[in-house]
Design a protein that fits this description.
The protein has 8 helices and no strands. With 130 residues, it is an all-alpha fold.
């Protein structure tokens, strides 16, 4: 998806989805900002404007890529834990043996490589595409 071709309605929809997912995962504001790789000038107190749907994120290539990974991880967690959506928030914060006993969230916060590792772990079809 090319971010130049995103209209305002699509940007608002993606922003709303992302904020709802990050809230459902019970991440604090600083972790949400870091996970989305928002600019350092972004203030945590402004997140409520995005959660309410008053504003959409200024999508660039990096944020669009991050959004794709977050949405993919969310979808994969929904497939992995279809009857207990709350467990996704727990799983993200618990150490996983496959990740050398690091929590998936810790890897995701470390950057794109960590996010891809978590996504590929949850959805093996992603590693076939890259």
């Amino acid at each position: 998806m090319d971010f130049d071709q995103l209209d305002d309605k699509v940007k608002m929809n993606i922003t709303h989805q992302l904020t709802q997912i990050l809230e459902q995962w019970q991440l604090n504001d600083q972790d949400q900002i870091k996970l989305l790789s928002l600019p350092k000038s972004f203030k945590a107190r402004h997140l409520y404007l995005y959660r309410r749907g008053d504003k959409s994120f200024d999508f660039d290539e990096a944020l669009l890529q991050r959004s794709k990974m977050i949405l993919g991880i969310y979808e994969s967690l929904g497939t992995t834990y279809p009857t207990n959506k709350e467990y996704a928030a727990i799983w993200l914060k618990r150490p996983v043996k496959k990740f050398k006993h690091k929590a998936p969230l810790e890897l995701m916060l470390s950057g794109d490589t960590g996010m891809k590792r978590v996504w590929y772990f949850l959805d093996c079809t992603q590693s076939w595409q890259n």
